[in-house]
Design goal:
single chain, 138 residues, alpha+beta, ph1033 like fold, seven-stranded mixed beta sheet, 7 strands, 19% helix, 34% strand, globular
């Protein structure tokens, strides 16, 4: 059964993944990626433009689908060899989160809407995915 996921990544880091057809989550950890299966969907939320910058974005910035079952490592430098998954990204537009907060079930406390994103990677239900997919691809 296909599942739907959200992951948190700065737009700057996301652009690297889109260019090369991969995703990394939670600072390169393998466990979240192993929870996914072929054909699962993932929506990318970018709280900021760059990882170390202060400029907020607070938008859904990409949508994609896993294309295989492979989780693999990629050496970025001697000290950092993160895990990745291959993703087919779809052309989409950025969607600010604030106008959608009241409509998203995965945000139970609307006044503390950022809390679910603190985990960096989580599953969402079908209705939330459908809403976000329509907005991103619409």
């Amino acid at each position: 059964m296909v599942k739907y996921w959200i992951t948190v990544v700065s737009k700057g880091h996301l652009q690297r993944g889109i260019a090369d057809g991969f995703m990394q989550v939670n600072h390169g950890k393998s466990t979240p990626l192993k929870r996914m299966n072929k054909d699962d969907w993932v929506i990318f939320y970018s709280p900021k433009l760059t990882m170390n910058g202060d400029e907020k974005l607070q938008a859904f910035t990409a949508i994609g689908q896993t294309i295989d079952e492979t989780v693999y490592q990629h050496k970025m430098n001697d000290d950092f060899i993160p895990f990745r998954r291959n993703i087919k990204y779809y052309e989409c537009k950025e969607i600010p989160i604030v106008p959608l907060i009241n409509d998203l079930e995965f945000i139970p406390n609307k006044s503390s809407w950022g809390y679910p994103f603190r985990f960096g990677f989580f599953e969402i239900n079908g209705p939330d995915f459908k809403l976000l997919k329509e907005k991103l691809l619409g």
